[in-house]
Amino acid sequence: MLQEQDVGHRIVVRRIVGSRAGRPVFSDALGELVELTETHLEMTTRQGRLRVPIAEVHRAKRVPPTRRPTADAVVELELAAEEAWPAPVRGRLGDWLLRSADGWTGRANSALPVGDPDRPLPAALDAVERWYAERGRPAIVNTPLPLAAPVGAELDLRGWDSRPLVLVQTVPLADLTAPGGRVARAATAAAPAVELTAAPSEDWLTVTVGRKGGLPDAARHVLTAVGQVRFAHAYDGDTLVGVGRGTVTGAGRWLGLSLIEVLPEARRAGVAVAVIGALAGWAGRAGATDVFLQVEQRNAPAVTLYRTLGFTTHHTYRSRVAPS
């Protein structure tokens, strides 16, 4: 049976919902345990909040941690993320993607080695180096792990540098948006109102420029050239105190969160949670079912916030950079 330390974990509950021909009828529910008392348990499921009297619980247990995702699941999510961050200049090397955006962000200026490059691995990496050299850019390869471990091993032999590890994290959308779900529980009374727009305001871009160090023309393409995209503006009075960007990609399944930023003077007041909640609500109405984001492992405050909201690491990647 469940215990107090199971609160906050995913559980499965078999409950008695009736009887037929003198035998009990059972129904199973899967979700996160949010409350456990002597009289009832309460959990958040994909369908919303569920309260079950203890007398109706036939069996309940914690769900073991999710196993490592399959290669197909990693490719699916990587392609949804690529669709959410589209570089204006693109090429292909078999299934591999080559991307360039005037140097604005590593993701939009890197090769994505998923699938078959239609040639031996050393020749494929030679071709990547030539493609970026022709554009006057350093060659960068994003290596989703463990899927692209062979690519990483070859780059090690070539002496390529490695940037900090990035966590690709996910959570079911319903875990955020359900009544009493994680966003509601993490919200604060002082959280500001959030406005969603189809295009970024100049103030929004100013905050982003401060974070990313400049805004070339290619950046506007990366930010806006997505079929379903919203820009979140959190205001304290007339002052913009927080921003964020949300996209729906991957055949409508995935909400991608990016550029969540809160001005220093407004931090620890629930601004980021409000921004994420607003984007999650929009994506839910658009039909999305899951959420992803990318965050550097060393960014402890952000990682802690996302853990609070239920995000777990789906897979990781490293950006590998050719020697100067």
SSE order and pairing:
Blueprint: E1 10-20, E2 23-36, E3 40-45, E4 48-53, E5 57-62, H1 71-84, E6 89-93, E7 96-100, E8 111-112, H2 121-134, E9 140-145, H3 149-157, E10 161-162, E11 166-172, H4 173-177, H5 182-186, E12 193-197, H6 202-212, H7 217-224, E13 229-236, E14 239-249, E15 254-262, H8 271-285, E16 290-296, H9 300-308, E17 312-321
Parallel strand pairs: 15-16
Antiparallel strand pairs: 1-2, 1-5, 2-3, 3-4, 6-7, 7-8, 9-17, 10-17, 11-16, 11-17, 12-13, 13-14, 14-15
Helix content: 25-40%
CATH architecture of the largest domain: 3-Layer(aba) Sandwich
Mean pLDDT: 92
- What overall geometry do the principal axes of the alpha carbons give? globular
Largest pleated sheet: 9 strands, mixed
Query: What would CATH call the class of the largest domain?
Result: Alpha Beta
Share of residues in strands? 35-45%
Tally of domains: 3
What this model shows, in words?
Pfam families: Rv0428c_C. The chain has 324 residues and is α+β, with helices and mostly antiparallel strands. It folds into three domains: 4-62, SH3 type barrels, CATH 2.30.30; 71-164, no CATH class; 167-316, Gcn5-related N-acetyltransferase (GNAT) (Aminopeptidase), CATH 3.40.630. The protein has nine helices and 17 strands. The chain has helices at residues 71-84, 121-134, 149-157, 173-177, 182-186, 202-212, 217-224, 271-285, 300-308; strands at 10-20, 23-36, 40-45, 48-53, 57-62, 89-93, 96-100, 111-112, 140-145, 161-162, 166-172, 193-197, 229-236, 239-249, 254-262, 290-296, 312-321. The strands form three sheets. Strands 9, 10, 11, 12, 13, 14, 15, 16 and 17 form a nine-stranded mixed sheet that branches. The protein has a five-stranded antiparallel sheet with strand order 4-3-2-1-5. The longest helix has 15 residues, at 271-285.
